């Protein structure tokens, strides 16, 4: 099990970064493909990456989607004595929830479950929680306990404890979700974990950053309280948020070989660690995939695995800067399904810059300035 660690500057031990290593495990899709169940599953539970960004879900119940390609998770602990859980650090939602011992859904039975009765610091909130998925829902209740993230102990943190879970969670490695978006998005008025870190002065700077390794299963990390210069090169481009609910920014255009292929005149995009692909409107995604030589096969855009090196760059123009995604970054290889691009169909207008984008660009999320910083990952 990977352990959290702390980096402190030599000149001032108070200047510390609190880090949680992220494991890149097998995705739910890979597990289903190995079992020969993927085609049946995708028809029964169609992928809806935009579900959690619909305004109807932005208040009341939190919403998550069935992203079968999610791979990154880190370990946190809850309670006294601590109980450990694997969670997805999700900048597209705001609640923390994990399975409870009161859940008997198949999705809970193969995950670690929290036992409130064995924690001396647990308090029941008395309120129910409902989290909406693209393919179902999670129901449960709320409680308070000490949550330790990257060596930071957040006391009296409100957490969701599931009693039922949607079927797709059965195939995911992570036990639950730790949301890192704005508090206005949180279900039941819950204060997000990072907001409590800030209010309790546990972090030196009101920011966190995410590095997703593209080469190995190890090396990915989420950093609380600052920026780790070991994970990027060059300068940081600071982009103001266009909406302080998600980490939402304005994309000026998307080009391939100098031609505008999407976002002509600008569009809105959310930088989201809780989505695996780059997702956009179907017409725009179809246009991008066509320009890079991909063909649509049941919703997957397939390419020749031998042509990756010759495939054109896809360039996102954001706040006067260019962010290049080469073929080697946007093509994913599957043992069962060959090579497919990381550009997926989504909603009518909104884009999601998910892990395919973040693997190329170290992402910094500043609550102090309400900006996203992007720098070339290394």
From TrEMBL:
InterPro entries: Aspartic_peptidase_A1 (IPR001461), Aspartic_peptidase_AS (IPR001969), Aspartic_peptidase_N (IPR012848), PEPTIDASE_A1 (IPR033121), Peptidase_aspartic_dom_sf (IPR021109)
EC number(s) per entry: 3.4.23.1
Disulphide bonds in the chain: 103-108, 263-267, 305-339
Superkingdom to which the source organism belongs: Eukaryota
Gene3D superfamilies found in the cross-reference section: 6.10.140.60, Acid Proteases
Recorded family membership: Belongs to the peptidase A1 family.
Protein name (Swiss-Prot/TrEMBL): pepsin A
Taxonomic source organism: Gymnodraco acuticeps (Antarctic dragonfish)
Lineage: Eukaryota, Metazoa, Chordata, Craniata, Vertebrata
Gene designation: LOC117552352
């Amino acid at each position: 099990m990977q352990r959290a660690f702390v980096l402190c500057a030599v000149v001032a031990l108070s200047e510390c970064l609190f880090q949680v290593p992220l494991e890149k495990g097998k995705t739910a899709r890979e597990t289903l493909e190995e079992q020969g169940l993927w085609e049946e599953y995708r028809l029964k539970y169609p992928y809806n990456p935009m579900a959690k960004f619909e305004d109807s879900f932005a208040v009341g119940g939190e919403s998550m989607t069935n992203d079968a390609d999610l791979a990154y998770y880190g370990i946190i602990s809850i309670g006294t004595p601590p109980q450990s859980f694997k969670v997805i650090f999700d900048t597209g939602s705001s609640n923390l929830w994990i399975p409870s011992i009161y859940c008997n859904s198949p999705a809970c039975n193969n995950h670690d479950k929290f036992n409130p009765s064995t924690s001396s610091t647990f308090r029941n909130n008395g309120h129910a929680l409902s989290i909406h998925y693209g393919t179902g829902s999670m129901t449960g209740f709320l409680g308070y306990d000490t949550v330790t993230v990257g060596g930071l102990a957040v006391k009296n943190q409100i957490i969701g404890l599931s009693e039922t879970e949607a079927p797709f969670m059965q195939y995911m490695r992570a036990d639950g979700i730790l949301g890192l978006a704005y508090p206005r998005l949180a279900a039941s008025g819950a204060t997000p974990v990072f907001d409590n870190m800030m209010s309790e002065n546990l972090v030196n700077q009101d920011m966190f950053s995410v590095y997703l390794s593209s080469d190995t299963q190890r090396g990915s990390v989420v950093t609380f309280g600052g920026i780790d210069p070991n994970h990027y090169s060059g300068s940081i481009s600071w982009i103001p948020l266009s909406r302080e609910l998600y980490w939402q920014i304005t994309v000026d255009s998307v080009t391939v070989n100098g031609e505008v292929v999407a976002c002509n005149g600008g569009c809105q995009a959310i930088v989201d660690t809780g989505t695996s692909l780059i997702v956009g409107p179907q017409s725009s995604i179809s246009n991008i995939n066509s320009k890079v030589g991909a063909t649509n096969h049941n919703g997957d855009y397939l390419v020749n695995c031998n042509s990756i090196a010759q495939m054109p760059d896809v360039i996102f123009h954001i706040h006067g800067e260019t962010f290049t995604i080469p073929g080697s970054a946007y093509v994913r290889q599957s043992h069962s399904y060959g090579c497919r691009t990381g550009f997926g169909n989504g909603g009518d207008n909104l884009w999601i810059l998910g892990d395919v984008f973040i693997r190329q660009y170290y992402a910094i999320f500043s609550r102090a300035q309400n900006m996203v910083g992007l720098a070339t990952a290394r």
